[in-house]
Structures are given as structure tokens and as C-alpha cells.
Amino acid sequence: MNLNEFLHMGGYAFYVWTSYGIALLVLVVNILMPLRQRRKLLTDIARRQRRARRTP
Amino acid sequence: MLEQGYNRSLYAVMFNNFFHRLASPKHFYRIAGAWIPWLAGACLLLFLAGLYYGLVVAPPDYQQGDSYRIMFIHVPAAWMSLFIYMVMAGAGAIGLIWRIKLAEVIAISSAPVGASFTFLALVTGSIWGKPMWGTWWVWDARLTSELILLFLYIGVIALHSAIEERRTAARAVAILALVGVINIPIIHFSVEWWNTLHQGPTVTRLDKPAIHLSMLIPLLLMALAFKLYYAFVVLMRARCEVLARERSAGWVRELVE
């Protein structure tokens, strides 16, 4: 099987690759969201702590 | 007799101790952090194997040609949409009854992942439906009940973000999730109870699966990959939720410094 044939998916290329593309997007976004949230939370908590220490 | 009783209570203590430690936010945060890379690594390997067998090795279907390959995303996503809902409702119930904070955390952390898989099942089903049924959407029982599942997940997420106090929010969310459980058997049996355009089950039947081994292997590989994906993503989310809840606790302060 050559690459062109593989990408062509027997004429269903649009349907198959759109499905797999959307799946990849959804899976990646679900990993990035908690990573971003964690970074945000940690900087937020650190900022709060510094502020608490400055005001006696 | 006496010794047996002693042994049993020793096991009970060990068992309780394990769960007590795991349920403590500090230990959960650490243990989950250690598990995530391993789960993610195993998940990636299973995905690669599943994609290879599903897209390259498995032959085209004699009726649907290559379009059936959407199944390797669609079916595991649909399975996960039901599985995660049951985990969410179960964890919600445990949180309600025994007031275990970690159960509340798992319940609410599951919702976005479950919503994502439900969305994925609906969208890939729609994309598959177009060439096979000639339409993107029909209001048949399977599709409609799965759409209601998406709304239930969205309802859980919206309700949780609408209530400021985290424990009250968790209780409200658990009750909503439990009421929504009624939809799960409706989704599962919809293809048998009603005359649907959606096909009946080919794998989860009592007699032998009506699917060839060369197609069953990638399907199961992808299903397992999706399960592990949920496991590590829900742990990532749960860690964030624990951090947010415990932001003023001593161990979080030490962690930040």
C-alpha cells in the first residue's frame, strides 16, 4: 500500500481524517487545559503569599 | 478464632490506613503526580498501536469501505461517555453519603472529560453518518439520548461554577448527576427498545461479537487507550481542584515555596 492510497482512504478521506483530526484536537486541548490551570493556580497562590507576608 | 479475628482487624486497619492516606489531599496530590507520567506513557503507546492496527493493518469493510475506520474513535468515545458518567455519579454519591472530599473532587474533575468524549462521539457519529446514512443527523433514540448526555455534563459543569462554596457546589452537582443516571440505560438499550437508524451493538452482546478479529483488536486497543487517557487527565484535573480547595493549607504553602 502506498502513501497516496493510504491518505485517500478509499474515497472517504474527508470523513475519516476530519474525525481523527477532531479527536486529536479534543484530546490535546483536554491535556493543555489542566496544565495551564495548574500553572495559573500556583502563581496565584504564590502572589497571595507574598502579599500576606508584606502586610504584617 | 481469636487470631483470625485479630488478623481480620489488622487487615481492616491496613486497608483503612491506605485509603485514609490516599484520601488526604496532600498525599493524593503527590501520589497522583507520580502516576500521571506512567499512565500517559502507557496511553500513548496504546494509541500508537491502536492507530497502526486501525488505519494500516485492518482491511476495509466489505460494505462500508474505509469509512468504517471512524469506528475506532467513535465507539470508544461513546463507551467512555457512559463510563465516565457512571464514575462521576458514583463518586458524587460517595461524596454525598460519606462526605469524602476526594470523591467530590473526582466527580467534578470527570465532568469536562466526559463532556469531551460525548462531544467526540456525537461529532464523529455525525461525520460517519453523512456518507453511510446520507444525513448528518437524525432525531433517533440513540442520537437524541446521547445529546441529552452532553447537556447533562454541561449542566453539571455550569452548576458547579455557579455555586461559590465548593462543598455546596459538590453536593448540588452530585444530586444532578445522580438524577441523570436514568439516561444511561436509555442510551444503552435505545437501539433495542426503539427502531433506530443507529445500528445495534456488535461487540457488547452476549453471544460472540459480530466483528472480525482484525477490526476488534484495534477497537479494543483504542478503548484501552481512551480509558488510560481519562485516568491521567482526570488526575491532572483533580490535582488542580485539590490545589484550589487547599490553597491556604500548610502543605500548599510549602509546595509553592
Q: Could you explain how this protein is built, in words?
A:
- The complex is a heterodimer of chains A (56) and B (257).
- Chain A is mostly helical and 56 residues long.
- Chain A has one domain (3-54).
- Chain A has helices at residues 3-8, 13-54.
- With 257 residues, chain B is an all-alpha fold.
- Helix content of chain B is 79%, strand content 0%.
- Chain B contains 9 helices and no strands.
- The radius of gyration of chain B is 21 Å and the shape is globular.
- The model of chain B has no long low-confidence stretch (mean pLDDT 90).
- At the A-B interface, helix 2 of A face helix 3, helix 4, helix 8 and helix 9 of B.
How many structurally independent domains of chain A?
A: 1
Helix and strand content put the structural class of chain B at mainly alpha
Taken as a percent bin, the fraction of beta residues of chain A is under 5%
**Major beta sheet summary of chain A:** none
Helix residue percentage of chain B: over 70%
Number of strands of chain B: 0
Strand percentage of chain B: under 5%
- The CATH topology of chain B corresponds to Four Helix Bundle (Hemerythrin (Met), subunit A)
Unreliable spans of chain B are none
Q: Which pair of chains forms the biggest interface, and how many residues does each contribute?
A: A-B, 30 and 36 residues
Instruction: Count every helix of chain A, treating DSSP H or I runs of 4 or more residues as helices.
Output: 2
Return Rg of chain B in Å: 21 Å
Helix content of chain A: over 70%
Strands of chain A, total number: 0
Mean pLDDT over the full residue set of chain A: 91
Q: What best-fitting shape of chain B do the alpha-carbon axes yield? A: globular
Number of separate structural domains of chain B = 1
H/E topology pattern of chain B: HHHHHHHHH
